[in-house]
């Protein structure tokens, strides 16, 4: 199987911080069928687990260290130290300086001008999520921000992103990403999307931008693909989660779910018009 790689400027990884790691493992393995392995060296402080689906990396999980449970999104960069300097010059605030994450890679955490934290990842041995857009895996991350125009200006400068207003949402593209996918992990991407009557440029789509609801803090929000939204809702509630809301549109059936420790994510069932 061809390894999935992520060019500079493409979201590549997600992880969750949880106060009770074992409880979170029980919830997410029950909901999505993930298996977990601890990748921290023996005797190292803290824990960091890799969640897998059919043996392929899906996400990470670590302890929250006194913070609230949440999901994080990482953007691939060629050089984490140089990226931190460039992002700070563009208006981001550094919340965690670049540091090695074992042999896997090098990461840093920053806060964009609108207040949303994001992370960057310079891959070494760990290339990023290896299964995506399949039931039980990462679908997209969405930026929830009070200032969409300001966010567009910042991220276009920061990563070379382009943003299209499709009427039903702001789609973020990394030009050339579709070419990369077609040449590596997804050779049928354009043929498949043409059959779905996808929006122009969808092969380059990497994320979305949305406004914030009243009282909602700015953040990068994670969505997972599911085969059946309604079944996922029932299973999530049985496992102790709270279903915050549900929504249907022309392309998806979604549910906003708060896990038992408070981290929110969206479960998204793809229902394109052609079906």
Feature tags:
alpha+beta, 8-stranded mixed β-sheet, 275 residues
Q: Which secondary-structure class do the elements indicate? A: alpha+beta
CA distance, first residue to last residue: 29 Å
Summed up, the helix count is 6
- Regions with pLDDT < 50 over 5+ consecutive residues? none
Q: Please count the beta strands (DSSP E, at least 2 residues each).
A: 16
Blueprint of the fold:
Blueprint: E1 11-18, H1 21-32, E2 35-38, E3 48-53, E4 56-63, E5 70-76, H2 80-89, E6 93-101, E7 105-111, E8 117-123, E9 138-144, H3 148-159, E10 162-165, E11 170-173, H4 177-183, H5 189-195, E12 205-210, E13 219-225, H6 229-238, E14 242-248, E15 252-258, E16 264-270
Parallel strand pairs: 1-4, 5-8, 9-12, 13-16
Antiparallel strand pairs: 1-5, 2-3, 3-4, 6-7, 7-8, 9-13, 10-11, 11-12, 14-15, 15-16
Task: Walk me through this protein's architecture.
This protein is an alpha+beta fold and 275 residues long. It has 6 helices and 16 strands.
In short:
This protein is of the alpha+beta class and 275 residues long. It is built from six helices and 16 strands. Strands 2-3-4-1-5-8-7-6 form an eight-stranded mixed sheet. An eight-stranded mixed sheet has the order 10-11-12-9-13-16-15-14, with helices on one face.
